[in-house]
Design a protein that fits this description.
With 661 residues, the chain is of the alpha/beta class. It is built from 17 helices and 19 strands. Strands 1, 2, 3, 4, 5, 6 and 7 form a 7-stranded antiparallel β-sheet that branches. Strands 9-11-12-14-13 form a 5-stranded mixed β-sheet, covered by helices on one side. A 5-stranded parallel β-sheet has the order 16-15-17-18-19, sandwiched between helices. It comes from hydrothermal vent metagenome.
Length: 661
């Protein structure tokens, strides 16, 4: 019985198709499972094993299907040609599957070891990373600390730099070899060296000092500090010569710079410019000396004025008692003239001593100029030319102080012309001075303009604005006070003084003084004419003075002219005598009181007590201190008039007449 293969072949074909579909489905599932955990070696193995099975299934199924198709189509010979290849593929696939199965365990072991190594490596990397992170953290902390330290150092350096530059003294630091390391700003200014220029130079080059007195080089303090390790101060009279040759007085000290182990590593010099301080101290010493001299001069002038009062009074009285044609009269006149010069001298001493307000009198400036200039130029080779009109207006001035101004200017001019020359003095009446040139003057006022011109070298433009400053002088032995006093006197007279160099050479001093309201005057004598004085008719005059010779001469002057006179030596006696005359119902017409009574009551105190007894009392102030403020403003102190010692007969009679009128 022949069995048909058709069902078998059909079933084989269907099985092949189903096997092929199943293989593809398994491959899809294996791929999905593999993607879930790609790192799993087992999943790798299943995926590869599935691929091998699929390859085997595809090869086997496709082979069967191709075989059936070729047999059915009568092409069996083609199958016989292909069948060896199909079998080879199946066999190869089988061996692959067998190989996968055989080496899976080894691969798994290797993979496990690789995983372990990987894990260990990760742990090692993690550990090393942790160590590196710790090291990095330490480095970051160290860098942060270094940055903080660097910032602190920079801040400290900046603070030190600012401090050094803010110090008002010069600071220089050197190394152990005495070479400059640092200069602050003040030391740069004082030495003329910059920090960049001075760095590395020997200190002696930068800090060049000399002895001001001997002009010899002064020993630099840096070597001493390095040698002895102690603070060293500079000697007095040390001067610093800067890089440009400018000299400054300095005070200086040097101190060692030590490290933590107290080893000397350098020197710091601290110095300051004491030029101005020294100048101020010198001026203070001058002022103190001048004050002492002033007190002495004031006392001498006061005593001398008392003596002059007796001398001039007796001379003047003798002139009035003898005939002007007598042979002795010219001698008396010459002595009187010399006494007047002595009076001017004492007035200048008092002006120097006190510097007070002027005691003004209406006077002719021309006469004062001539007399003072002739006196100042006596015995010199300098000629003085005058251009002074006779109708020069009168001026309210202090004759003594104004004479001092003229004398100072004439002496300056004479000293400027050591080989001789000419001085031109010109005075003129000026109405409405030019406001643009002299803004300090009243543009509607009247002034006397006086110019004093010499033929000397003139005043340098650089110092012309300083010549009226106290203590300013270009002379080696000058005090620098003459022109300052002159400026002060002119200002107190309401005037103006200026100095300039003449365009043809020489110096020109210009003075403006306000005139007295009234008619123009003439150059007449300062002695009041006898006819202008009211005759006395027995009025009782009291004279209070501590100097007996002054009481006597004043008494003779007044008695000679018809007055009755009583004399007392101080304020206490004056009050006592005045009360006695009041009780006796006798009138004391006027009292002449000396303002200053050594050891007793003077006129300043006595006048208030006299006026308390008799408000109608007429009290005249008298003093050898012409600059006393009482003499300038006597009415404010209770006096009705004032007379300055020394005085002449007509001065005394005129003052008494003024008090009685």
């Amino acid at each position: 019985m022949v069995v048909s293969w058709a069902p078998v072949e059909i079933i084989d074909s269907i099985g092949s198709i189903l096997a092929l579909l199943l293989a593809i489905g398994c491959l899809q599932q294996a791929w999905v499972w593999y993607r879930v955990h790609r790192e799993d070696i087992f999943r790798h193995y299943i995926l590869l094993f599935t691929i091998a099975i699929v390859v085997f299934a595809v090869s086997r199924s496709c082979g069967h299907l191709i075989k059936q198709i070729l047999i059915l189509s009568g092409r069996e010979h083609i199958w016989h040609m292909l069948s060896p290849f199909s079998g080879a593929i199946n066999t190869a696939t089988f061996f692959v599957i067998f190989a996968f199965s055989l080496y899976y365990q080894r691969v798994k072991i290797i993979h496990t070891k690789l995983e372990e190594y990987k894990n260990n490596l990760e742990e090692m990397v993690a550990l090393r990373t942790a160590e590196l992170e710790e090291t990095n953290f330490s480095l970051e902390n160290e860098v942060t600390e270094r940055q903080a330290i660097q910032k602190a150092l920079e801040a400290e350096r900046e603070r030190l730099t600012v401090t050094l530059r803010s110090i008002g003294d010069g600071v220089i630091t050197t190394d152990i070899e005495g070479r400059v390391i640092l200069l602050n700003r003040v030391s740069e200014q004082l030495t003329g060296w910059t920090q960049e220029e001075a760095a590395g130079h020997p200190i002696a080059e930068v800090f060049n000092i000399i002895d001001e007195s001997t002009r010899l080089p002064q020993e630099n303090p840096v070597p001493k500090v390095l040698k002895y390790g102690q603070i060293v101060d500079l000697a007095n009279h040390t001067a610093l010569i800067d890089r440009n040759g400018v000299e400054r007085s300095i005070a200086d000290s040097g101190a060692p710079i030590r490290d933590r182990e107290s080893r000397i590593i350098g020197v710091v010099l601290v110095f300051r410019d004491v030029t101005e301080t020294k100048r101020l101290n010198e001026e203070l010493n001058k002022t103190q000396k001048l004050e002492s001299v002033g007190v002495l001069a004031g006392g001498i002038a006061h005593d001398f004025n008392n003596i002059l009062t007796a001398i001039m009074g007796n001379l003047n009285l003798a002139q009035h008692l003898i005939n002007p044609k007598d042979k002795i009269y010219p001698l008396l006149e010459a002595a009187d003239k010399a006494s007047r010069r002595a009076k001017t001298l004492t007035h200048q001493l008092l002006t120097f001593a006190k510097g007070g307000n002027p005691v003004k009198k209406t006077a002719n400036l021309g006469r004062i100029i001539r007399e003072t200039a002739n006196f100042a130029l006596h015995g010199s080779s300098v000629q003085c030319l005058y251009d002074i009109p006779n109708d020069l207006w009168l001026v309210d001035l202090d004759p003594g102080q104004m004479s001092q101004v003229i004398q100072n200017l004439i002496i300056n001019a004479r000293q400027a012309m050591s080989s001789g020359g000419r001085i031109m003095i010109k005075s003129s009446n000026i109405s409405s001075p030019e406001k643009e040139m002299y803004p300090v003057l009243d543009p509607d006022g009247k002034y006397i303009k006086t110019t004093i011109t010499d033929e000397g070298p003139g005043i340098p433009a650089a110092i012309v604005g300083q010549i009226f400053d106290p203590y300013f002088t270009t002379k080696e032995k000058g005090s620098g006070l003459g022109l300052a006093i002159s400026h002060s006197i002119i200002s107190k007279h309401g005037g103006f003084i200026k100095a300039a160099s003449h365009n043809k050479g020489g110096t020109v001093f210009t003075i403006y003084l306000p005139v007295t309201t009234g008619e123009p005057g003439s150059q007449t004598s300062s002695i009041t004419p006898q006819s202008a004085i009211k005759p006395a008719s027995g009025e009782l005059i009291m004279i209070m003075d501590d100097e007996k010779m002054i009481r006597n001469i004043a008494k003779m002057m007044l008695e000679t002219n018809g007055f009755e006179v009583i004399t007392v030596k101080d304020g206490e006696e004056a009050l006592k005598v005045y009360k006695q005359y009041q009780k006796a119902l006798k009138t004391v017409s006027a009292i002449i009181m000396d303002l200053t009574i050594p050891g007793g009551m003077g006129g300043k105190e006595a006048v208030t007590k006299i006026l308390a007894l008799d408000p109608r009392a007429r009290v005249i102030a008298s003093s050898g201190y012409s600059n006393d403020p009482v003499m300038t403003d006597f009415h404010s102190y209770g006096f009705c008039a004032a007379i300055t010692k020394p005085y002449l007969i007509n001065d005394l009679l005129s003052t008494v007449s003024q008090a009685l009128s």
